[in-house]
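Exercise: predict the fold of this chain.
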Amino acid sequence: MFLKNLKWAILWVLFIFILCTLPGKDIPHISFLEILNFDKFVHAGVFFVLILLTIRGFLVQTKFFVVQRSAKFIALWICIIYGGLLEIMQAKFCEGRSADILDFIANSFGSIVGLLMYNWIERKFLRKQTV
């Protein structure tokens, strides 16, 4: 069951979707966090987690992705495209929200850093657990 291996990634995608579709007025505005561009760190962080979950789900499914490198790059493209589509959706359909190229860059940055750190994270944390 291919989707079974991606259940955590799918749940995380839904979590991101819910956060990104909240009306702008429902998002707390804290002035010192806005000065620090905390929002960009949040975007990068949630996409960092998304790519880790997606890669893990793909690699567990060894029958579908024989070559690990292709699984990782497919996961990267999925995350980047999803981040872009979310920004477009926010501009078109979400009240009080707009598309922000810097949010898209932060999403992509988080995905790329997650891809680059995946092997280290797997060695340190994931191999200790059974899949």
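Check your answer against the key: The chain has a mean pLDDT of 83.
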